[in-house]
Amino acid sequence: MASLDAAQDVRRIRDRLASRRLGVTTALLVVLALTFALAMYLGDFPVAPADIVRSLLSPFTREVNKGVDFIVLNVRLPRATLAVLTGMAFGLSGIIFQTILRNPLASPDIIGIAHGASAAAVVCIILLGLSGFAVSVGSLAGAILTALVIYALAWRGTVTAYRVVLIGIGMAAMLSAVVSYLFTRARLFEVQQAMAWLVGSLNAASAADILPLAIALAILLPPTILLVRGLDALQLGDDTAKALGARLEIVRLGLILVGVGYTAFATAAVGPVTFVAFVAGPIARSLLAGSGKGFLQAALVGALVMLGSDLVAQHALPEIQMPVGVVTGLFGALFLLWLLVVSNRAGRVN
Q1: Fewer CB within 10 Å, N side or C side of the chain?
Q2: 66: Cβ–Cβ under 8 A, 6 or more apart, which residues?
Q3: How far is Cα 201 from Cα 276, in angstroms, rounded to an integer?
Q4: What DSSP designation does 99 have?
């Protein structure tokens, strides 16, 4: 009888957790859809909602309204879509690193990977005189190379979170110094061009930016889903995971590689937009309250933060469009302060 009651209690707890997970996911999808609709509606050129829908359906209905179609299909839709895709990529990247390193501060824009992309982009712009797609390719290579260097330096038979975070922070400081030095040697035009890229912006978003990122997400998502299944053992600690027969290093290295991939491709598309990767995971897990790992929800939160921040950047100040990185930086800095205060009160600062 007692075992039957225990089984019923376990079932009730599972149902409650599943209900919360479903409710949180549904709520995030609804809010994201509403924010996307708002992004399609707001702008200097007023377009009625019915005309927006008509324009979105025009590839199928063959109805043509050149003015509205240009605003909707060539300006607002690429920008909002790119915000969602890059936000999802940053969110997934952040929660992957925070989970495998078991540290809420271990997002790629804190431990130096985004700094590697930034430094490589500045080298491309100032030293090599490159621009456009070549800068994106350079930033992609810089992020991957930085991650490999951090992993190699942290390796002592195995990789521990403590060493990765410390080496990553040191690497971030060193790469920031490299960027600052290059600025002292550059001409004013080159510094302006590099700064516009470093802040992170969706102002020049176009349909051509979406396809490479969408393909990268489609390639990276299946291995992410497979590798996440091995995280349960990883969360028990290295010794316990090994005792249970978990293939610890394969799971950890695989997740680091896909996490770097998300960061690198998103940074190549819009620049190193700060703090989206940092805040997405903690917000998602706070909403879930222990009812899931939070990877899907972190991707949705990342998309929502990116899209919402871009709306604020476009419309908060009249006649001024800020880069989205300015808004995420302000929001992320406030969130970081709140996280440190809460951690201090709980005695959880490492």
Answers
A1: N
A2: none
A3: 13
A4: H
CB-CB contact of 262 with 109 (8 Å): no
pLDDT in tens, 69-98: 889 998 899 999 999 999 999 999 999 988
Q: How confident is the model at residue 40 (pLDDT cuts 50, 70, 90)?
A: very high
E strand or H helix that includes residue 284: helix 276-288
- Residue 58: CB atoms within 10 A of its CB come to 16
Rounded CA separation 286/279 (Å): 11
Rg of the chain taking only CA atoms, in angstroms: 22
d(CA 46, CA 222): 40
pLDDT of 350 over the 70 cut: no
CA distance 14 to 18: 6
CB 275, CB 332: distance < 8 Å: yes
Nearest to 118 by CA among 97, 136, 98: 136
State how far the Cα of 114 lies from the Cα of 19, in Å rounded to an integer.
36
Tell me the whole-structure pTM to 2 decimals.
0.87
